[in-house]
Amino acid sequence: xxxxxxxxxxxxxxxxIVTVNGQFPGPxxxxxxxxxxxxxxxxxxxxxxxxxxxxxxxLRSGWADGPSYITQCPIQTGQxxxxxxxxxxxxxxxxxxxxxxxxxxxxxxxIIILPKKHVPYPFPQPYKEVPIIFDTFKLKVxxxxxxLLRLINAALxxxxxxxxxxxxxxxVEADAxxxxxFRTTTVxxxxxxxxxxxxxxKRHHFPNTTFLMAARPYATGPGTFDNSTTAAILQYQHRxxxxxxxxxxxxxxxxxxxxxFPFFNNTKFATIFSKKILSLANSKFPANVPKRVxxxxxxTVGLGLTPCAKTQNCQGPxxxxxxxxxxxxxFVQPNTALLQAHFFKKSKGVYTxxxxxxxxxxxxxxxxxxxxxxxxxxxxxxxxxxxxxxELVMQDTSIIxxxxxxxxxxxxxxxxxxxxxxxFDPNKDPAKFNLVDPAERNTVGVPSGGWVAIRxxxxxxxxWFMHCHLEVHTSWGLKMAWIVMDGKRPNQKxxxxxxxxxxx
Length: 504
Hints:
Belongs to the multicopper oxidase family. Its EC number is 1.10.3.2. This protein has four helices and 32 strands. The protein is globular. It is about 5% helix and about 40% strand. The two termini are about 20 Å apart. The strands form seven sheets. Strands 10, 12, 15, 17, 18 and 19 form a six-stranded mixed sheet that branches. It has a six-stranded mixed sheet with strand order 21-20-25-30-27-28. The chain has a five-stranded mixed sheet with strand order 9-11-16-13-14, with no helix packed on it. By secondary structure, the chain is mostly beta strands.
């Protein structure tokens, strides 16, 4: 992959942007479950660059994960790095994107993981497969056919509703994990999530009708947001009648049908939709959710204020600016990659291992905010012994304002065992957890004014980033990192870094 500048025209405007191989969006990566993927990235632009293979588990290949200053130093101008990893136990749709600064606004593309050879899908074999990254395009379909649409939300800051006018979709996969199929007219997909849906086209040709495929934001925060709609076109291929085609085009009015969406802040719909996503949980595709727990964590996620330097003029009270935090810690990006510091046992001055397992100050998280809403800052990590069974409850806070936060965990899939509104009750809510067929994901929305509980097995040694996938919140510090220690066996240890790992 060549990182280079390219002139791109969209909506009658031409801009010079950073691209991969001159393409926007970037090229597709197609692999099968079990394949080893090797991608050489060469940086020809002035920006430092890293690429992240979003949702790929990276079992014992943390050096290839890609978040800058977490698992690697950036690839500098004129330098190259080979990302090498094996796709284990995953099939479906993921995507790759830049993982430094805001570069993923243009550097992204689909990862399509096919099942192993001669292994069928657990749903009807589609006539055609179409990756959709919410750019404007036209899809021509045949009547009475089944299409597999691979939906990817690569947006920086928008959770999206997706719908096709006058059509019903069947959800069959989320985050490269098969789910119990269910029908819906609207799909909710947050930044960092992928969803595969089956579209069964109508039996007739509809030669004079255009159906809009559209996506528009779901937004819950107190700030302004982009309320525009991105649209693509679905048209039925019609039978050709050479004698009448020209006259038909002249004399027929084309009908444009638009989808109906939930209201932009319809959290009730978002909640109902997310609860419909359940693992297949059968013998072929089991849901290996940890039934017992070794370590419990409770993380508050949300916004607060941080003081500005005396030389700055910030608009918050007492010269402060917005910050984002987990358990009141706003993450400070180090100058050395955490994984290198961990592997070579040189953590001093890079990070500390005292990330709080619970909020240091308890308060009514979804009620009246405390009088002091200042956040602390630091490069703190949480350390887990190999094979620790983790339960993590993430609680939204109403400081500044309640808001949905899509949290992405690198290096693992996790099971979404529970969610609710208001404050999590550790005495009552765990009794309602789903430990049978919960959704298995890599990105989950912490509900606006609510909480979500996840479980995962820490069986992947390395340093693993966890962050909000709203880029603005990540840049404000809504992020942290887990260190998973090596196990005792050779196949439970992180190998040494590759020789071409970029230097800081």
